[in-house]
TrEMBL record:
SUPFAM superfamilies: GroES-like, NAD(P)-binding Rossmann-fold domains. CDD domains: arabinose_DH_like (cd05284). Its cofactor is Zn(2+). The keyword Secreted does not apply. It comes from the Archaea. This is Alcohol dehydrogenase (AdhP). GO terms for molecular function: alcohol dehydrogenase (NAD+) activity; zinc ion binding. Coiled coil: none annotated. It is an enzyme of class 1 (oxidoreductase). The keyword NAD applies. Keywords: Metal-binding, NAD, Oxidoreductase, Zinc. Residues 11-338 form the Enoyl reductase (ER) domain.
Length: 341
């Protein structure tokens, strides 16, 4: 028997249970989990904002060591380190064929590790070998966080929004995804303004390369942005919060023709003034997680040293519910990670 933290019911803590080691199918790999990053989506699942399929082991930022391989698996060997791309696009629908696996028409009827299939808050996890990415010698807690925070940031910057050199980009929200997004925007040559409420998080954003930081609680976001951009406004606003407040600030801080990209997952209706979108030709788009090839790119970036880890806190698996409470209350700066020996 091995340990797993399982989700049963909306509004309830995860249950720590002893479960059987998963049996490996012909196309599967059994991972001995070493690190599982903690994402705000876990809180959304527990609160019922994001649908899942309980009972299920949560944790979708998963890195570990290959412990066993199915008979058909040829490209992984025991003892090798790997990170999981947690969603399973079908590869055959129109969206997949167009290279947009993240909006695969069949995404939600296929395994999503840590959502609809057992994920990483456990000692072992079974995954389809196709969902695995080889890892070079980088810390496994860092690697785990690339699996969601990393690719979500990369997809928003790289796919939805090929930034131009010297674009002015605002990152609204300096949680884990925002911390990677600001680094990636800097690597693309943009000038980056990070917006958040927590001074400690804003300090971290600065240390990771943000050119300017704005504390949202001062309520002077538009004025500060106009000052920084000589009255012009930012070219791109990437919104990791998504609320009436963030949309209001975004639409008053964009330059004409600017882009607003929504990444934060909220199911609360927001109000916008459509006129401003027409008169200033703003565009508004959503961006969802990222593709496996983007995870492969990120692993290379991490190995090169250009992308820095945002993991600041490690917790034991048995401490998961306390750790998730800290996350819920905004007490984790960067990313928290469950570390398993
Ligand atoms: Zn996530
Ligand atoms: Zn598909």
């Amino acid at each position: 028997m091995v340990r797993a933290a399982r989700f049963y019911e909306i509004g309830k803590s995860l249950k720590l249970e002893d479960v059987d080691i998963p049996e490996v199918g012909d196309n599967d790999v059994l991972l001995k989990i070493k690190a599982a990053g903690m994402c705000h989506s876990d809180i959304h699942i527990i609160d019922g904002v994001i649908a899942s399929m309980p009972p299920v082991t949560l944790g979708h930022e998963i890195a570990g060591e290959v412990a066993e391989i199915g008979t058909n698996v040829k490209n992984f060997t025991r003892g090798e380190k790997a990170v999981v791309h947690f969603l399973s696009p079908c590869g055959t629908c129109n969206c997949c064929l167009a290279g947009n696996g993240m909006i695969c028409e069949n995404l939600f009827v296929r395994p999503g590790y840590g959502f609809s299939a057992d994920g990483g808050y456990a000692e072992y996890c079974k995954v389809d070998a196709e969902r695995l990415v080889h890892l070079p010698d980088i810390p496994l807690d860092f690697a785990a966080t690339l699996g969601c925070a990393g690719i979500t940031a990369y997809h928003a910057i790289n796919n939805k929004n090929k930034l131009d050199l010297m674009d002015d980009v605002a990152i609204y929200g300096v949680g884990g995804v925002g911390m990677y997004a600001l680094q990636l925007a800097k690597l693309r040559g943009a000038r980056v303004i990070a917006i958040g409420r927590n001074e400690e998080k804003l300090k971290m954003a600065e240390s990771l390369g943000a050119d300017y930081v704005i504390n949202a609680s001062t309520n002077k976001i538009k004025d500060e942005i106009k000052k920084i951009t000589n009255g012009r406004g930012v070219d791109v606003m990437i919104d990791f919060v998504v609320s009436d407040e963030s949309i209001k600030h975004s639409s008053s801080s964009l330059t004409n023709g600017g882009k607003m990209i929504l990444v934060g997952v909220s199911n609360k209706p927001i109000s916008i003034n459509p006129q401003v979108f027409v008169l200033k030709e703003f565009s508004l788009t959503g961006s969802l997680v990222g593709n496996k090839n983007e995870l492969i790119d990120l692993v290379k970036l991490a190995k090169s040293g250009k992308l820095k880890s945002i993991v600041t806190k490690e917790f034991a698996l048995d401490d998961i519910n306390n750790a998730l409470e800290l996350l819920r209350n905004g007490k984790i700066v960067g990313r928290g990670c469950i570390s398993i020996q």
